């Protein structure tokens, strides 16, 4: 092959590689602005059978609630939006974070029911690059952890340090709050982490295996994409490392049949946590379905945890 052909082939290969990086990056990390204020929150399409009717009732009840629109600007300049739901005006405030490509009321309708029953006010932000919040890059907790700290500051500014805060999240939302767990103010009384993963690398490698992509290649592509297109280091956050320095009590929850985020990831987070901790596992529950599968056990665990930490 002549020199010109070699150079042409290399150029084509480079262009193809760059194209692959761009496509993989924007398919994994970028999020189009497809949620508007006049569009109802999406439902979970992975709930079926006997759980579908129960989920439908929870989702409809959550969507019928009247929340106050709130907004803040993140430390890196992104406008973040959310809703504040007042159920008592007293006691602790829960700050709940939804999961990857999720929505607060889609992912948190079970927790919203619990909050209403307990008379606990709830702030539910749209995570960056989701819903009404700005940004186009989802970073698996690397930057979202700082958004969590900014929302905590919002609550401090609004209610003062005398009012306790409970952090809560599901899936990526759980990992978001856990990654921030080593920098929490003293009025954060506890954390409820439902099916959180350990690190961005761990979950990307796991998903790569599920789609039959070599896990090393999958993470290498994702890490390079994040660096090139988002300026993000996917290795810059770890839930276990933060939990070593955590002082707030933590309730870990995970479905034993979760194939998307294996329950062993919550076990690893639990083992790393040096703060007071509890762990509820739910037999038969797939990803983020523990409340649907065993509402009684879930409710009991949350109520007992809050009675110990937030009263």
From TrEMBL:
Keyword annotations from UniProtKB, A to Z: Hydrolase, Signal
Span of the signal peptide: 1-30
Hydrolase among keywords: yes
Molecular function GO labels: hydrolase activity
Ranges where the AB hydrolase-1 domain occurs: 92-202
Source superkingdom: Bacteria
Protein name in the entry: Alpha/beta hydrolase
Organism annotation: Candidatus Scatomorpha intestinavium
